[in-house]
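This entry is passed on directly below:
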Amino acid sequence: METVPMQLNAELKKYFGFNAFKGEQEEVIKSLLNGEDTFVIMPTGGGKSMCYQLPALLMEGTAIVVSPLIALMKNQVDAIRGFSSGDHIAHFMNSSLNKTELTKVKSDLEAAKTKLLYVAPETLTKQANIDFFKTINISFFAIDEAHCISEWGHDFRPEYRRLREIIEAIDRVPIIALTATATPKVQQDIQKNLGMTDANVFKASFNRANLYYEVNPKQKEANSQIVKYVNQFKGKSGIVYCLSRKKVEELAETLQVNGIKALPYHAGLDAGSRAKHQDMFLMEEVDVIVATIAFGMGIDKPDVRFVIHHDIPKSLEGYYQETGRAGRDGGEGKCVAFYSYKDIEKLEKFLQGKPVAEQEIGRQLIFETVSYAETAICRRKQLLHYFGERYEEDNCGNCDNCLNPRKEFEAKENVVLLLNTIDALKENFKANYLSNFLAGEVSSEIKSLNHDQHPSFGAGKEVKEIKWNSIIRQCIIADLVIKEIENYGVLKISEKGRKFMKQPESIMMVEPKKYTDPEGAAVIAAGGKGGGAADEGLYNLLKDLVKEVARDEDLPPYVIFSEPSLEDMATRYPITMEELTNITGVGQGKAEKFGQVFLETIKEYVEENEIERPDDMVVKSVVNKSGLKVYIIQSIDRKMPLEDIAAAKGKDVDFILGEIENIVLSGTKVDLDYILEDLLDEEYQEEIFDYFRDTEEDSIEDAVEEFEGVYSEEELRMMRIKFLSIMGN
């Protein structure tokens, strides 16, 4: 029977003050008001909450909304109460309530005053609560963040798997399930698990045209990259996501010391601090929240202008949902991720020790994220394809790949070879396996199946594995290859692919993007050659100056400032003592001892040439909390053998010597006499010391050659450390 009010727009205006529905909201609401199970897939910012809030106000009884986060519940309840004259209209029931508060909630429910009750899934599973809910009139169940049901979802919660049996035990009223991210696989899983395979499904487009997507290679100093980026958005709201709590704290502190109003948000903070930081962000008392993934769910702040990922997340669903918090008002929304394959290796390590099935799922989700990060085609196209949506445009004009298109190549022969290989291997393998197989890379899996003896093994070895992965990704998007839903990740040839095998035609593909080394980034390490200075003119000036100072001090030039330090100065133009201490290999002591004349020279050069200094020069570092350097210095003060220092930190002696070299190159004295006295007689020490005083180069290889192997490399390194400590610091 039709029970839908004829004037839904009038009800919308009456309760919420809006004149019109967004997208498919009205159709969704009608479906629920008609007592039908309803499944809603709607991107963040699409107005999912309205789909159950308005029906709850219009129907008899109380709607029970299952929600995974306490912060989200409070936010939603406060919003609903804002539209009503009494607080009884909406409540939440979770572990944060005391006995008095819980009694008040139950009393309002029994009196039928409450239209919306938000509950945590854990609350719903308690038998006492199940018995209580049987006694009240329930209009429907809303399962928010429904992807939590699916093991393939990015935020799987085992307690969500019990919802169907609990709902049936209470009262089989209509169910509305809602999620902002669902691949076809996750959608199928949710419907099956909730027993609503016949539900009316409403799927909005996942395309957020106003969001700009970009992935950058993560450099060693990722914090500097982020400070520089955030500085472009002075006074605007943004969120920075990190995987670890430690990184959240460190980055928030780095932003603060650089004059950016930022606060941390993670599960390690007490509930009061979390709520306070969230409210300060909503009230615009701070501009930036640095958070683990727990932040932002259900927070309707429309003007978040940027979302930065310090680490690539472990799934594309998570990434899409987090980036979806930008530009919800339709305005500018910049989504920038910093990517390093080392982070992926870290994510894979997190899977160790988990059940095999969970590891398999986790690895597949990570693979999809890598595919997105490393793709050279339109990022929007890649992202939408993942969610089962076709994007017909070749260039979206709002992602880094489309704004800076990469070189194309004719891929007809490659595609034919790929399809023939999938066919020859009986359509049983995933993308990584096929890439290794075609490139002739012998992985442990290939070896175990004797596929290194297969006649087609290495048939595409002139094409690198990274390029095969890229070709496979582009074949999936072109619908030539299908990734199986049930057996997630296994590649099958589509009907279109079979036609292509019979009648191959020209197909242009994009060269893959390389993320192993940041393009154009100077790789600078103490004691090693740098990546070259950005300003050759200044570099040559500083090179002459260091020789001049060295002559005055009667020291080799490298004792004053090493080559990587000069290169860094000629790239970043430090003009204050504080900025100089941020230069590679320059500590406070060395800066104060030799720095003034260099700062004056750089300042004069900058003014004469009207140089605009890069923003990241003013990035101030927070003291390294790892404590490794402090530990080494303290251990040397206690006269510990280098072997013991290395063993305590799980490193080798060579690594520890490298760290000590960095310490002295930065201007800190280190006394290794307690070791050297046992190794070398005084006259030998003097001989080596004089060599380092007289040589222009600080190369250990040259020293080994000079002494014709009489002294070991380790002995010479320790003597160079002694020389630098005495003469340079």
Notes: Confidence is low (pLDDT under 50) at residues 1-6, 516-532.
